[in-house]
Amino acid sequence: MVSIDKAAIVLTMAIVAIALGVAASGDMTQDAGPAVFTPSTVSTETSEPETSSFGADLAAEIREKAEQTIEVEDKVDMEDTSMEETMMEETMMEETMMEETMMEETSEPETIHVEIPTGTSYPGCEETNSCYSPADVTINAGDTVHWMNVDSSAHTVTAGTSADVQIEVFDSSLIMADGTWSHEFNDAGIYDYFCMIHPWMTGTVTVN
Ligand SMILES: [Cu+2]
User: Which of 9, 32, 170, 188 has the most CB atoms around its CB within 10 Å?
Assistant: First the structure.
């Protein structure tokens, strides 16, 4: 009985000891908790800069890539611009060549036609500046103006104005019905002219 009691006591003590031990270890775990937590907090704190430095690295990397992309885009833009410029230059050169060709064509002496319309022997055409048609012409030096009288009355093409007649510059004398008269203008200037019979008839020839 005693041995059994002893054994029972030992067993009980052992159980208690284990229980205490468990409790103690539990306490230890609880105690260790903050101890472990503190380093982990520290490690979290240290990991935060790590995270931010990683973020900074990532940001730098993204920035670098973005810059590279921009550089590539710039290169593409430059290539596009240089291509556009080349195309524009080519177009401009073509246009210049065309203009030069046209200039060469237009530099040939031309004949410009002016009509003396019907009904101009009566006043009225001066109100619409249509006593010669067209009343104002612009030509190049060396060009010729050719007047055709389609009216039934005779008219003149006389340099100057009725108040300042300049027959010495040019004067057609009478241009009969259906008659024509031409004059070559070799000197630049603005030449007023009029009809000596019907002084309301006026026109100008501008020579460049
Ligand atoms: Cu006239």
Answer: 170
Q: How far is CA 110 from CA 155, 172, 183, in A?
A: 24, 19, 12
Q: Is the pTM of this model over 0.85?
A: no
Could you tell me the distance, in angstroms and rounded to a whole number, from the CA of residue 45 to the centre of ligand 1? 109
Q: Band the pLDDT of 62: cuts 50, 70, 90.
A: low
Q: What would the mean pLDDT of 142-148 be, rounded to a whole number?
A: 98
- Residues 6 or more apart from 138 whose CB is under 8 A from it? 206, 207, 208
For tokens 């002084």, name the residue: 199
> What are the CB-based long-range contacts (under 8 Å, 24+) for 53-61?
none
Please tell me the distance between residue 167's alpha carbon and the centre of ligand 1 in angstroms. Answer: 15
CA distances from 135 to 51, 55, 174, 200, 206 (A): 88, 83, 18, 12, 11
Q: Are 112 and 143 in contact (CB under 8 A)?
A: yes
Kindly give the distance from the C-alpha atom of residue 120 to the centroid of ligand 1, in angstroms, as a whole number: 6
